[in-house]
């Protein structure tokens, strides 16, 4: 009897010990969508809980850009009329104004325009003398009305022909008051700037459909052409400040402002062209150069959380939110950007909520 009693006691103690071990081995309990970590769960020590708060954040958007001369500050020089180059005044880097002569050419078209101009000017002077003589005769009563009318008509015709010849000279941008018959055509710079390209060869014959032989550009201010993706264009506005970074000069930081945001989306790249105007007094930025454009928005209050707290499944980002002490639910979130080792939230979490900053992947076993 005593032996039976001892056996029952041993079995009872063993059963209680096993029950205690089973209860202590429970690491989580799943209640619907809620994961509960009971007291004694070794998962508790593996999780780091944080609280959501807002902080000042400046949205940044990086994109590639290309330096371009401002069109109104750039001119390719190509004579509108054919001729042979007689003399060149051009030197690379030379500063010019709209009155600076670049080169001289002997142009048959210009010579013909000169001959017509001098001929019409001479005929106009003759018609003017005849008209004055007819007017003088009429004033003394010895002329006829018919002769005066004919003289007036002849003068009007010659005056019109002279005006047409004068326009023909001005097409060549020559000064009719200082024109000399047979003089060469002087091609002048059309804008302020400096010579950045020179292909003029003395003695060469330039056709009227020839490509440019010189280029004038004012590069103290330039445009940077950036391509912003369609989904990000809402962050870019006119007059926004930008930073321009050059790979070859990482220590050089150039500031610019958004000059224009194109209204048309490029269908092949799904991007929008943005023009940024930059000061370039030292000519650091050169047309054709590749740069990086950093668009900077005004500071806003935003929610930032560690990147390692964000989990991914089936193209959906989510975190685990603590709804009660050691009770967690999965919450989908939307991310609008990154900053270092943190992400910027667009939606999903509110100020004051607690979430799993580290170790959230342990809770994936419960789902």
In helices, the fraction of residues equals 10-25%
Question: How many domains make up the coordinates?
Answer: 3
Q: What summary fits the major beta sheet?
A: 7 strands, antiparallel
What do we call the CATH homologous superfamily of the largest domain?
RNA polymerase II/Efflux pump adaptor protein, barrel-sandwich hybrid domain
Instruction: Look at the structure and give the CATH class of the largest domain.
Output: Mainly Beta
- Secondary-structure-based class equals alpha+beta
Report the radius of gyration as a whole number of Å.
43 Å
Q: Please tell me what the overall shape is.
A: elongated
What is the total tally of β strands? 25
Low-confidence stretches: 6-24
- Reading the helices and strands in chain order gives HEEEEEEEEEHHEEEEEEEEEEEEEEEE
How far is it from the N-terminal to the C-terminal residue, by CA? 52 Å
Furnish the topology, listing elements before pairings.
Blueprint: H1 2-24, E1 29-31, E2 34-36, E3 48-51, E4 54-57, E5 60-69, E6 74-77, E7 83-88, E8 95-96, E9 101-106, H2 108-139, H3 145-170, E10 185-188, E11 193-198, E12 205-206, E13 214-217, E14 221-229, E15 241-246, E16 249-266, E17 271-279, E18 290-296, E19 300-306, E20 311-313, E21 316-324, E22 327-332, E23 334-339, E24 342-347, E25 354-358
Antiparallel strand pairs: 1-2, 2-22, 3-25, 4-19, 5-14, 5-18, 6-13, 7-9, 7-12, 8-11, 9-10, 11-13, 14-17, 15-16, 15-18, 16-17, 19-24, 20-21, 21-22, 21-25, 23-24
Helix pairs in contact: 2-3
């Amino acid at each position: 009897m005593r032996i039976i009693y001892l056996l029952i006691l041993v079995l009872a103690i063993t059963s209680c010990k096993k029950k205690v071990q089973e209860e202590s081995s429970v690491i989580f309990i799943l209640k619907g969508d809620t994961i509960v970590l009971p007291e004694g769960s070794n998962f508790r020590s593996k999780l780091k809980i944080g609280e959501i708060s807002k902080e000042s954040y400046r949205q940044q958007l990086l994109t590639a850009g290309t330096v371009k001369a401002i069109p109104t500050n750039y001119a390719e020089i190509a004579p509108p009329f054919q001729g042979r180059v007689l003399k060149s005044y051009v030197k690379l880097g030379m500063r010019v104004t709209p009155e600076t002569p670049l080169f001289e050419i002997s142009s048959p078209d210009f010579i013909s325009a000169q001959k017509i101009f001098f001929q019409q000017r001479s005929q106009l002077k003759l018609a003017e003398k005849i008209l004055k003589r007819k007017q003088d005769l009429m004033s003394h009563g010895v002329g006829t009305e018919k002769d005066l009318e004919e003289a007036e008509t002849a003068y009007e015709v010659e005056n019109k022909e002279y005006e047409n010849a004068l326009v023909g000279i001005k097409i060549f941008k020559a000064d009719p008051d200082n024109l000399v018959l047979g003089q060469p055509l002087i091609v002048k710079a059309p804008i302020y700037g400096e010579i950045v390209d020179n292909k003029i060869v003395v003695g060469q014959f330039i056709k009227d459909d020839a490509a440019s032989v010189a280029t004038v550009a004012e590069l103290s201010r330039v445009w940077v052409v950036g391509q912003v993706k369609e989904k990000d264009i809402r962050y870019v506005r006119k007059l926004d400040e930008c930073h321009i970074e050059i790979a070859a000069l990482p220590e050089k930081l150039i500031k610019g402002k958004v000059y224009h945001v194109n209204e048309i989306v490029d269908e092949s790249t799904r991007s929008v062209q943005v023009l940024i105007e930059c000061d370039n007094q030292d000519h650091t930025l050169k047309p054709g150069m590749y740069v990086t454009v950093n668009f900077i928005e005004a500071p806003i209050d935003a929610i930032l959380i560690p990147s390692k707290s964000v989990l991914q499944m089936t193209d959906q980002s989510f975190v685990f939110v603590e709804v009660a002490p050691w009770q967690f639910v999965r919450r989908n979130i939307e991310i609008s950007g990154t900053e270092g080792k943190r992400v910027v939230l667009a939606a999903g979490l509110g100020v004051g909520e607690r979430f799993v900053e580290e170790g959230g992947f342990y809770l994936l076993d419960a789902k």
